[in-house]
């Protein structure tokens, strides 16, 4: 009876070994794909949009299963916001927008981005809302850009006239209706509270995280990214018409920080930087025009001017302000050629300052030009124009040189040895062809005794 036990022992050992191998291989088989983490911190502009669009594309190429977009923004430009939303809606992988850390907000454009995301989450102590269009690029508003109440219905019915029938009022209503329809369409796509989203647009409503979760504006709350990613494990989301099940438990987090391109674009699209670059460009070109041949000021000035104009074309620019700036540039460059003794230059300064004040056509935070910077540019420009005018006046009072007899008696330096009685010499800072009866050596000092057209007759300086 003992022999059968010994006969079956190898079989049991093989079964146990196979079971152990399966158990050991299971964690490797279920290894979670990485999660990419992007960050929007501050006003949404061209640099943020480029960063998010490229970040989502890179995450898809690297095999990430999810993109977490950390958001803390007061709002931003409409064009930049829509670029980000298009990237989210067309992404081949899920995107979770997460308002964090505590005290952060997803206001204005940030609200639209959360509504567009596959998953919307918030940290405790954060808020969302105030999505009223405040000159975010849809078009200029009728006032300073503050929150606008919904149109008054009284008097807008039978035979009545609306309270605000001005063109500005019509534009404001178009903005409001466009924004309300946009956020409602996003809410319906993601199954979120469309009514509250529209009220956030029309009435500038805001919600704390707890209320947003209760009203189904967001999907969940989490204190940090790690907890959020763990909570999403096993969640099913629709991505371009297909169902995706997240496997995020234990997934590595890959934080993608803004690269040099994003930082450079962020600097160029800062209105203050763009204005400074344009100013440096003007000064460089003025110096080059006033002192032809210097080369470096002209090259640097042209580059600065082009970079400044590139930054401005990405921003919501008031074209009247840009026209004033270009007029100021023309006047200040004209000062280098025309004897206006500062009149054109000062007119250019005034035009440049007026253009700078009205240049950026938005009341969004972080997109205005500080008055202190405009004042500094105006003062520096006025000082430079004043110095130029002062030099011009002194030059006007100076005695005229360069007559036929004026060069006689001048002393110069021979530049090379004479050949056939002639050589080149530096006389009064100019290079002349000189002739002498005596042999001339390089470096020798000579004195002008006569002139025959472009040829000067000279004698050695020690010759009596």
Structural class: alpha/beta
Largest sheet: number of strands, sense, barrel closure: 6 strands, parallel
Radius of gyration: 37 Å
- Shape label: elongated
Number of E strands: 16
Q: Treating each run of at least 4 consecutive H or I residues as one helix, how many helices?
A: 14
Subcellular location: Membrane
Keywords: Membrane, Signal, Transmembrane, Transmembrane helix
Organism: Massilia soli
Pfam family, one: NfeD
Map the helices and strands:
Elements (H helix, E strand, L loop, with lengths): L1 H28 L5 E7 L4 H16 L4 E7 L5 H12 L5 E5 L5 E3 L1 H8 L2 E4 L4 E3 L37 H24 L3 H10 L2 E3 H6 L5 E2 L3 H7 L4 E4 L2 E4 L7 E3 L4 H9 L2 H20 L5 H18 L5 H17 L7 H15 L13 H27 L13 E4 L7 E6 L2 E6 L9 E8 L2 E6 L4
Parallel strand pairs: 1-2, 1-11, 2-3, 3-5, 4-6, 5-8, 14-16
Antiparallel strand pairs: 6-7, 9-10, 12-13, 12-15, 13-14, 15-16
Helix pairs in contact: 2-3, 2-9, 3-4, 5-6, 10-11, 12-13, 13-14
In short:
InterPro entries: ClpP/crotonase-like_dom_sf, Membrane_assoc_protease, NA-bd_OB-fold, NfeD-like_C, NfeD1b_N, NfeD_membrane. The protein has about 475 residues and is of the alpha/beta class.
Give the key terms.
single chain, 464 residues, alpha/beta, 2-enoyl-CoA Hydratase, Chain A, domain 1, OB fold (Dihydrolipoamide Acetyltransferase, E2P), 6-stranded parallel β-sheet, 5-stranded mixed barrel
């Amino acid at each position: 009876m003992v022999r059968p036990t010994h006969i079956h022992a190898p079989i049991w050992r093989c079964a146990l070994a196979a079971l152990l191998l399966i158990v050991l291989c299971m964690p490797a088989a279920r290894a979670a794909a990485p999660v990419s983490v992007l960050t929007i911190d501050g006003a949404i502009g061209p640099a943020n949009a480029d960063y998010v669009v490229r970040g989502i594309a890179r995450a898809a190429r690297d095999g990430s299963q999810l993109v977490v977009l950390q958001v803390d923004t007061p709002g931003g430009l409409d064009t930049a916001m829509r670029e980000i939303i298009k990237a989210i809606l067309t992404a081949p992988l899920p995107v979770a927008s997460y308002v964090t850390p505590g005290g952060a907000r997803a206001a204005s454009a940030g609200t639209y981005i959360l509504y567009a995301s596959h998953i919307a989450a918030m940290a405790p102590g954060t808020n969302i809302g105030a999505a009223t269009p405040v000159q975010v690029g849809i078009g200029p508003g009728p006032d300073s850009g503050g929150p606008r109440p919904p149109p008054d219905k009284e008097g807008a019915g039978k035979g009545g006239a609306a309270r605000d029938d001005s063109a500005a009022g019509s534009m404001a209503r178009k903005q409001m209706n466009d924004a309300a329809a946009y956020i409602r369409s996003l809410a319906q796509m993601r199954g979120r509270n469309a009514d509250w989203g529209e009220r956030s647009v029309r009435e500038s409503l805001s919600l704390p995280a707890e209320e947003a979760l209760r009203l189904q504006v967001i999907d969940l709350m989490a204190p940090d990214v790690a907890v959020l990613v763990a909570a999403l494990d096993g969640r099913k989301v629709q991505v371009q018409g297909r169902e995706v099940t997240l496997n995020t438990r234990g997934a590595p987090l890959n934080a993608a920080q803004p690269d040099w391109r994003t930082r450079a674009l962020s600097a160029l699209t800062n209105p203050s930087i763009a204005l400074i670059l344009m100013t440096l460009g003007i000064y460089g070109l003025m110096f080059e025009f006033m002192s032809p041949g210097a080369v470096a000021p002209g090259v640097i000035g042209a580059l600065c001017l082009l970079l400044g104009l590139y930054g401005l074309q990405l921003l919501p620019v008031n074209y009247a302000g840009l026209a004033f700036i270009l007029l100021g540039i023309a006047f200040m460059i004209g000062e280098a050629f025309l004897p206006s003794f500062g009149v054109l230059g000062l007119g250019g300064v005034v035009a440049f300052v007026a253009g700078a004040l009205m240049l950026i056509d938005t009341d969004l935070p972080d997109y205005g030009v500080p008055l202190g910077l405009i004042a500094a540019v105006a003062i520096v420009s006025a000082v430079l124009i004043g110095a130029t005018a002062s030099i011009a006046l002194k030059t006007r009072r100076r005695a005229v040189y360069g007559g036929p007899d004026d060069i006689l008696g001048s002393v110069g330096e021979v530049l090379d040895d004479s050949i056939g009685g002639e050589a080149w010499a530096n006389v009064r800072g100019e290079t002349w062809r000189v002739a002498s009866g005596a042999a001339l050596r390089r470096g020798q000092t000579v004195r002008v005794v006569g002139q025959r057209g472009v040829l000067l007759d000279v004698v050695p300086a020690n010759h009596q």
